[in-house]
Amino acid sequence: MLASAVLVADADGLVRYANPAAEHLLDMSAKSLSRQKLVGLFTNGDELGALCEQAIAHKYADLRQDLTLFRPAREPLHVHSIVSAAGEAEVVVELRENVQQLKLDREERLLDQSLANKELIRNLAHEIKNPLGGIRGAAQLLELELPDVHLSSLREYTQVIIKEADRLQTLVDRLLAPHRRPHIVGDVNIHEVCERVRSLVLAEFPSGLAIRRDYDASIPEFRGDKEQLIQTVLNIVHNAAQALRARIAAGDAEIVLRTRVARQVTLAKVRYGLALDLHIIDNGPGIAPDIRDRIFYPLVSGREGGSGLGLTLAQTFVQQHLGLIECESRPGLTDFRILIPLP
Question: Per the database record, which ranges form the Histidine kinase domain (predicted)?
Answer without folding.
Answer: 123-343
